[in-house]
Amino acid sequence: MYAAFAALLLTGAGWLVADWQKNADGAEIWQQIAANLLMIHGGVAMLALLLLGALVPVHLLRAWRSRKNRISGSIMATFNAALIVTAFGLYYLGSEVVRPWMSWIHLSVGFALSLMFPLHIWFGRRELR
Prior knowledge:
Layout: H1 2-21, H2 27-65, H3 70-92, H4 98-128
């Protein structure tokens, strides 16, 4: 899970940098880099969906029943749900009105999740003491 989330963060951030550069000199190479990073990001996202699905019975439900780390866990679940919905919107909706909003929400929540992930782990380990 850690490796998948790290790969999603790196490919997402890398895509953002490449996307910003696509109108600069050497735009063709930046467009190719952006396309490749987006392809990798999507593939890793599919793996992350499998891992998140496995976490529900093994981690999420068990922790919820034992009343452990509910606040940060709920935030993590909400962030992941928002990423899934916005990713679906970015990939399948062709609306030029909705797409920029979906993109900014996806980017913001993705970067927020990368900050929340270590906090969630820290809170969980702190409760074990």
